[in-house]
Amino acid sequence: MYEKFANVKLKTGQSMEVGVVLAPDAEYADEVKKFLGHKPETYRRHIDLCVYEVLGLLETRFYVGRIDGHIISNIMITEYDGIGTLGHVFTLPDQRRKGACKAIMKYQMDDFRSRDGKALYLGTGYDSHPYHIYKSFGFDSVYDESGFMYYFAMEDFDVNYFADVDVHVKDDIEWHDWAKITALTGITNGDQIRNIALGIYGPSNFEGGFLHFKQELENGTNYRAAKLLQTTSGAVVAMATLKQDEDTILLDIFAHPLFWTQSEMLLDSLEMPSSEIRCYVETTSEGKVELLRKFGFHCKDVQRDNDHGLDVAVYVANTG
Q1: What is the DSSP-derived secondary structure letter of residue 275?
Q2: pLDDT of 319
Q3: Tens digits of per-residue pLDDT, 98-116?
Q4: What pLDDT is attached to residue 247?
Q5: How many angstroms separate the Cα of 21 from the Cα of each of 28, 31, 32, 61, 84?
Q6: Residue 259 pLDDT more than 80?
Q7: Fewer CB under 10 Å: which end of the chain, C or N?
Q8: Which CATH superfamily is domain 162-318 in?
Q9: Three-state DSSP class for 58?
Q10: Could you tell me which residues come within 8 angstroms of residue 118 by beta carbon, excluding any fewer than 6 positions away?
Q11: What whole-number distance in Å separates Cα of residue 198 and Cα of residue 312?
């Protein structure tokens, strides 16, 4: 479905139509695919799927600028329940510096707010020209001097979002979990080690990482399990994965600091294989250490992670 917002005048005096394509859309599918065909394969896979079919509860919107009926600029939002990721910001090289992207951004942000949007996340170069465009629309760095940015419709969004204490285990990771996992991996408090298998350390944008992760899960290789702990209001507050790591199984579990105790049900839901299971935990993580010990893990070694400036304890359990 395509919805026109307005005609705007660019710096050159040209008229550009601004509108949004809500995927899937058979009429615009081929044009959107072609316009974003330069994206890496993993990103193209999502685009190729969403323009033709419904991806569960995930909503994908392509906010476009059109001149003479052809797309010249795009901003994409993937979203569920008011939590979204902004990406694929692209303007044709010969159409740049005309104000096209900024014009689309205005209507995209207005539309997001009109649908009671709560939070958006994006990744860009810190202090770059795009960074300052996003900043002018209310985005800010997740942490100092970072190109990982957030926009909260309400100032205390993150406090309220993680306030619900009623939780349950979600057995399958679905398309609409995309931005919700980023809301968790993007928190500025809590452990630095968030998921070694996925390369997540500290506050992190899970935009591209989710696409690789989702494809691996669908392929049915490497990962033996991947589950989430979710509140009744929909927030993802913990994630656990089991992945084959040579002769052992690597357990990764990360929780919002308020939910380590409840994460016992998440760990309990995993079907542990009959082999050695290894989990890495920074030595200052009291909640994670206590959780692992409850499940029979013991500290085998302590190593120094110079890349991340951490002392890391290696906890193991043997279920064989």
Answers
A1: S
A2: 66
A3: 999 999 999 999 999 999 9
A4: 82
A5: 7, 11, 9, 6, 16
A6: yes
A7: C
A8: Gcn5-related N-acetyltransferase (GNAT) (3.40.630.30)
A9: coil
A10: 81, 82, 83, 152, 153, 154, 157, 161
A11: 17
